[in-house]
Amino acid sequence: MTKVWLALTLRLLGVVAASGLLGFFISPLLGMALAIVVLAALLASHTLQLARLQRWLKAPEQRDIPDAWGTWGNVFVELYRMLRREHKAVTRIQAELEIFSQAAEASPDGLVILDADDRILWCNRVAEQHLGLQGDRDHGLLLTNLVRLPGLPDLISAGREGEMLLHRPSERRGAVYSIEVIRFGKDRKLLISFDVTQIERAENMRRDFVANVSHELRTPLTVITGFIEHLVEDSGTDELTKRQLLIMDEQSRRMLRLVDDLLTLSRLEGEVQSPREEEVDMAELVEDLRLEAIRLSNHRHTVLAEACEERLRGSREELRSAFSNLVSNAVRYTPQGGRILLHWTVHEGRGYFSVEDSGIGIAEEHLPRLTERFYRVDRGRSRDTGGTGLGLAIVKHVLLRHQASLEIKSTLGGGSTFSAAFPGWRVLPAVLPPPDALQDADSRLTTKSAS
């Protein structure tokens, strides 16, 4: 840059010196005219070079670099070198993008990239097959308008890692896909679809086997418990035999509970159709569960409940079964004199049913496996309390059928909190009483105050 300014300064000084000498020795007017002509020639030359530069920048080619003298020649060469570097960088990036694109197309899973407004930016061929999309046609369109799946908008907006949704497209009978959404970059989302059809078929075979075996076991167990009950009540049975029969009765009934839980779990796992839904009055359900906890506890614990007025869309029967399992666990693992608290709250649009207890608590390493079938933290204690090891597995499957999740917080020796978290679209606003009912209540209050 210094050389450029130096050359320009020398040229201007040369023009000024020549004009000054001509004006001093011959005529001032002639010297001024010379200066004007020389400066005009320089200006015309620079204008010509600018025009050449403009034409060349529209299609820069090495063989077409304009001939230029001095500084302009250096400018053209440096511009060309810069463009060459940029061209190489662009070529390298394009090659890398092509590799990534080929890798994404080779993926066995469906991939869809969404922008901040959940519009489709790109998808691979597998995603087109799984979700019925067409990349070119659907670019820029809202995914939720193209894929009609209950719970998908909430899954996309939440973008919580680990949450998944099953998709069974009607046009591909028998196919099952698992959908997960991952956030990345600035408000971008990556939707991944996995083909779990074979896994689903294997699960169906396993469920059918368990259900069939459970059905076959239930009938003889019912007969056995009936005979044991008859023998216990028989006046001719001596006390030692009665005690032995009572132990047999307890174990056979425990086996019946296990079979019933297996049948319930098989039914929940095997039902493809969504549960028959209704508007569940959660305040009423929480109160029913509180009374149930008191009966199970036989007044050995303090049982409290609090519920907001919002309702929940779902199957009351299934929800009651799942919540009842959480309540019975709290009663079973809370020592006498402990406290059990039932909550129904709405936070940030999501609904939460929670069972909080002051029981023995659970060590952190056991928490991830609690919903596994037959998983027991303390096997001996579970048997003593009559647990089957399937209660939380039933809870998990009921919640999955309601697009909900189970959140567990526990401290060893400090109690536990089990929370069922429901998506916002399942939470319904509270029903306000009709105006007539409010007026009647006001009038009764006024009458009571007056009296």
Task: Considering the chains and any ligands shown, give keywords for the structure.
single chain; 451 residues; alpha+beta; Beta-Lactamase; Helix Hairpins; five-stranded antiparallel beta sheet; five-stranded mixed beta sheet; 17% strand; elongated; disordered C terminus
CA-based shape = elongated
Percent range for helical residues?
40-55%
* Largest beta sheet: strand ordering: 2-1-5-4-3
Number of domains: 4
The number of distinct β-strands equals: 13
Order of helices and strands: HHHEEHHHHEEEHHEHEEHEEHHEEEH
Low-confidence stretches: 445-451
* Strand residues, percent: 15-25%
Assign the CATH architecture of the largest domain.
2-Layer Sandwich
- The CATH homologous superfamily name of the largest domain equals Histidine kinase-like ATPase, C-terminal domain
Distance between the termini: 100 Å
The helix-and-strand class reads alpha+beta
User: Biggest sheet: strands, sense, closure?
Assistant: 5 strands, antiparallel
Subunit organisation of the chains: single chain
Overall average pLDDT: 80
**What is the CATH first-level class name of the largest domain?**
Alpha Beta
Task: Round the Cα radius of gyration to an integer and report it.
Answer: 40 Å
